[in-house]
Amino acid sequence: MVTFEEFLAMALSLPGAEQQPTWEIETLRVRSKIFAMGSPEGGSVSVKASKEDQAELLAAEPEVFSYPGYVGRHGWIGIRLDRIDPDELRELLTEAWRRTAPARMVREFDAATNG
Q1: What does the alpha-carbon distance between residue 110 and residue 47 come to, in Å, rounded to a whole number?
Q2: pLDDT for 55-111, tens place per residue?
Q3: pTM of the model as a whole
Q4: CA distances from 56 to 20, 35, 36, 92, 114 (A)
Q5: What is the DSSP string of 4-72?
Q6: Which H/E stretch holds residue 97?
Q7: Roughly how many angstroms between the first and final C-alpha of the chain, as a whole number?
Q8: What is the model's pLDDT at position 115?
């Protein structure tokens, strides 16, 4: 189980990540581009993913993952915070950030975390 505050902390620990309220929800962005979003009252969050990853996650753990409205058609995945493993959420957030951040920022992050 992960709290919304823990979700925010994980997302904001990524380089250049910023929190911005939008559409009555909290969006997590890098260079003004959204990579995750959710509401403290909602119990679930949405994270940017590929359509392939989305399909695999939905098939593997339908009790944890869902197809979110509006952004699901773009590959995003809905995640129930009360059912997700914290390490898996951190990995999904990092991958969402990678899909959104500029290539140079991703290279610098990889160099810092792998070397």
Answers
A1: 20
A2: 999 999 999 999 998 899 999 999 999 999 999 999 999 999 999 999 999 999 999
A3: 0.93
A4: 29, 19, 19, 13, 27
A5: HHHHHHHHHTSTTEEEEEETTEEEEEETTEEEEEE-TTTSEEEE---HHHHHHHHHH-TTTEE--TTTG
A6: helix 86-100
A7: 31
A8: 67
